[in-house]
Structure formats: structure tokens, C-alpha cells
Amino acid sequence: MTTRINKLPTTDIPSLYDLLIMFLGTSMRLCHRAILDVYNFVVAPIKPTMVYASPGSNGLSQSLSPIRYQWLSLTPLTALSTFTILFPPVANSLQNDVIKVTSAAAISTLTLSGNGATVATSISSISPTAPLEFTFDSVASTWYVSIP
Q1: What is the pLDDT of residues 47-61, one digit of tens each?
Q2: Residues 65 and 136 reside in one and the same domain
Q3: What is the Cα–Cα distance from 112 to 99, expressed in whole angstroms?
Q4: How much is the mean pLDDT over the chain?
Q5: DSSP string, 22-90
Q6: Is residue 125 classed as helix, strand or coil in its secondary structure?
Q7: Are residues 37 and 57 in the same domain?
């Protein structure tokens, strides 16, 4: 015996189209939320979060917050003798986090502090023509240089 509910065909098995209409009608908010979750997990990390620092006005160091992909743009007015970059805390860093560093002027002594993680590099300076990029490995708790 079949019953007619919500103008569905008089059959025991609704069609795929009928199920889609029921799903979209009752779960549109869930569908929208799922799309946002996918966007925030897959697409949003691709766009870097810009962090601007003007050494001289805010001291000779910069702390970075835990963000999936960030770009530290240093804009000193003149060449600097020393500067320190403090990476995000190791407890808040995720696998494949990326930090890109550029500088508008040369920094002759660059100190990279892993903040609980190891920074595997022998780089000790930065120039305007040579950006740096670091990728985090959560298994080894290490920041590796991906663009020397």
C-alpha cells in the first residue's frame, strides 16, 4: 500500500530527483555550511595573510601568529644590521603551514627563532631580491626552507 506524501509519486521508492528536492528544501542551511567548511579548509589557506612590519618603528623583531599561510613583508627605510623573526608557537603550528618573508632593504644578520620548533636553515641574511619561504613539518617540529 502506498501513500501520497508531499505530492510525491505514488510509489514506494522516490526518484533521485524527489530526494534532491526534499534535501534542498529541508537542508539548505546544512548544504551552505558544508560548502563554507570546504572553502575554509581548502581554498582560504591558499590566499596569504599579509603581515606588514616596518623595522625601526616597532623594534627589531617581529612575532608571527599561527596562520596557515602568511606573508611577512618587511619595509625598513634603510638597511638593517640585525632583525629577529619569531615563528608561531610549535603547539599552534599545523602540517604544511607556510611563511613567506620579503624585505624592501637588506638585513645583514637575520635571526630565525622557531618558538619551540627547529628552523632548519643556514640562512643568516635577507636581501630585497631574495625572498624566503618556510614550510612546517609537524612530525619533526621543524620549519624547512622551501625557497632559499
Answers
A1: 677 888 777 655 588
A2: yes
A3: 12
A4: 78
A5: HHHHH-HHHHHHHHHHHIIIIIGGGSPEEEEE-TTTS-SEEE----SEEEEEE--SS-EEEEEEEPPPG
A6: coil
A7: no
